[in-house]
Amino acid sequence: MEEVLKYPGCFVCGDDNRCGLKAKFYSDGNQVVTELTAQRDFEGYQDIYHGGIIATVLDEVMVKAILADQRYAVTAEMTVRFFKPVPVGEKLRFVGKIVKTRGRMFITESEATGEDGTVFARATGKYIEARGPLKQSLVKSTEQ
């Protein structure tokens, strides 16, 4: 598995973001995976990991699936289904992949599971491939 490009300042994957998750994303050519532990710093209610953080990582793992293919894209639409609250301290595995490509649009899906295979959340997304100045900015951010 190969580590996917990242922007050092990114909240999810950036090593330089002092408030961030510092998640590492790896690709096997078909999907992208990351693992992290639900930290108390990001709880929503007492002992429950914040759903917004889960949604953020689901988004990131889907866009990383596109980036692993050396293509730069931004989120156009995302739908998340939550099945169970994630307890603080739970080790999570996030998997994302491209399901279909239509022109500049990527259709993706992702899933967050616990160590025992419990499915906590799933997401689908639509991403638009960046062009022009936006693409140049995205490329530049990953070259830092």
In summary, what is this structure?
The protein is of the alpha+beta class and 144 residues long. Helix content is 19%, strand content 40%. It has a single domain (2-142), classed as Hotdog Thioesterase (Thiol Ester Dehydrase, Chain A, Roll), CATH 3.10.129.10.
Describe the structure.
With 144 residues, the chain is α+β, with helices and mostly antiparallel strands. The protein has one domain (2-142): Thiol Ester Dehydrase, Chain A (Roll). It contains two helices and nine strands; from the N terminus they run E-E-E-E-E-H-E-E-E-E-H. A seven-stranded antiparallel β-sheet has the order 1-2-3-7-8-9-6, with helices on one face. The protein has a two-stranded antiparallel sheet with strand order 4-5. A hairpin with a 2-residue loop joins strand 4 (43-45) and strand 5. The radius of gyration is 15 Å and the shape is globular. The two termini are 22 Å apart. The mean pLDDT is 94.
